[in-house]
Design a protein that fits this description.
The complex is a heterodimer of chains A (248) and B (281). Chain A is mainly alpha-helical and 248 residues long. Chain A has two domains: 141 residues, no CATH class; 59 residues, no CATH class. Chain A has eleven helices and no strands. In chain A, helix 2 packs antiparallel against helix 5, helix 3 packs parallel to helix 5 and helix 8 runs antiparallel to helix 10. With 281 residues, chain B is of the alpha/beta class. Chain B has two domains: 233 residues, 3-Layer(aba) Sandwich (Rossmann fold); 36 residues, no CATH class. Chain B contains twelve helices and ten strands. In chain B, the strands form two sheets. In chain B, strands 6-7-8-3-9-10 form a six-stranded mixed sheet, sandwiched between helices. In chain B, helix 6 crosses helix 7. The chains are: A mainly alpha (248), B alpha/beta (281).
Amino acid sequence: MMWLSGGFIFRRGESFYHRLDPRTKLLNSALMFVTTLLARSVFEMALVIGFMVGLSAAATVLKRVARTMAFTGLFSGFIFVVNIVFTRNLDTSLLYAIRFIAIVVSTSLFFITTSPDELEQVMKMFRLPRDVVFAFVTAVRFIPVMMLDTMQIMDAQKSRGLELEKGNLVRRVRNMIPILIPLVVNSVVRSGELAEAMESRAYGAVPRPTSLLVYRARGTDIGAACAAVALFALVSYSFYFVIPVHFP
Amino acid sequence: MGDILEVEGLSFRYPEAPRNAVSGFDLAIPEGEIVVLAGPSGCGKSTLLRTVNGLIPHMYGGEYSGDVRVAGSSVKDSNMRDLAQSVGFLFQNPENQIFMFSVERDVAFGLENLGVPRSDMRARVDEALRLLKIGDLAQRAPHELSDGQKQRVALAGVLAMRPKLVILDEPTSLLDPKTASELVALVARLRRELGTTFVVVEHRLDLLVEVADRLVVMDGGKKVLEGTPRDVLFGEEAEAHGVAVPAITRVQKMLAGKVGVSADRLLAPSELAAAVEGRGA
């Protein structure tokens, strides 16, 4: 599970891809996503995967992307087996299996190179209500805090004799109650304190708050976007004019 | 200079509470003072502070009487937007007042909420980072900071809004002794450099007695003692009201009248050292 989550958690980086405008990264990932759906031959799919691998290498996240690919490979293998059993078509089965990996990688590449701050800006760009954006920001911000809280509560309860790993499944689930109750109580108290701190720092004072961060598209953004658009155009051309329609 | 904070006959009772959290409280604080508020837990200190920045009565309901004025304006009649600009509030747990994923974004949080233009905001954020000496942390995420650094970041976020009055609610309770001393030194420096007024709730008085102008002791929701830290701590009543009198003061009280014991009413180790040096000379 940690492998999969590692494929979606942002870590700071200094590559050109990390520094791209988050809107460009979103556009790239969206285009890659759609392109994988349009690709109808193993060659096209290999082209898309190659493009993603190239981007991952340029973003210095190839190792993490490779781990994600290896993990999704397990599911992908399952998809391949099911398809080969039912369709008896090697190309189709291979295509579906690779498509699954490509879809996961296209979204993974966006999340591992885009900071939560940038995600917030992207959400604002879609004109989501400020409260919704702030709820998302706060939820993500407090994930490490909640994890630390959980570990501390588990240690405290274990030191008082709670045996989390003992017993059958029902017993183990029941053992989690002394962990969950203090965790929920802590979270409720924390949310009250957060609300006070937000009021004290003028949350909601004006209908249109300003932002310290402003993103402007630069040459590298235009270059990266053009590359993704070119790939999309190539696969789209093939989709409509080259490969027969009956192929999936 | 005039009074930045005036509290007149303030009483407040939370809904369905059996008694008032604050009763008939009066206080006037001139601009630029550092005032320490002490007293046993549950004596109403936190409630009093929340009446100063408007959380009471604007966020919490209850029976409210009397008046609190900040820079001449009644808190009751002001909105939270204006109050957030004139009163900064540093809560006990810095973790729960850092909202953003990078230090500089968090320092800018209040300014963004106020709609401050970006160029002005940039300058104010940089100034706050410089004042708190945390410029090198600007891009760090909250979970990459120590408790002391978090406290500084939270204070930077408060100061970026340029409040006239800053409230610190037990700011050293989560800090180790060294970081706590550094925070107190920082408060003294900010008062000196910016002329900011501070109201500090603190149990560890030994840290603050050197920089505080005044000590106010609360008990049972009422003000029971007020004066200079020296007068209050060397008086008879402070300990009876649950005030943690600094060790150096307690020792002098115990040895009062004994041969060789100074009658200077020393409050801090630095004063003791100076007295001993003076005697040696």
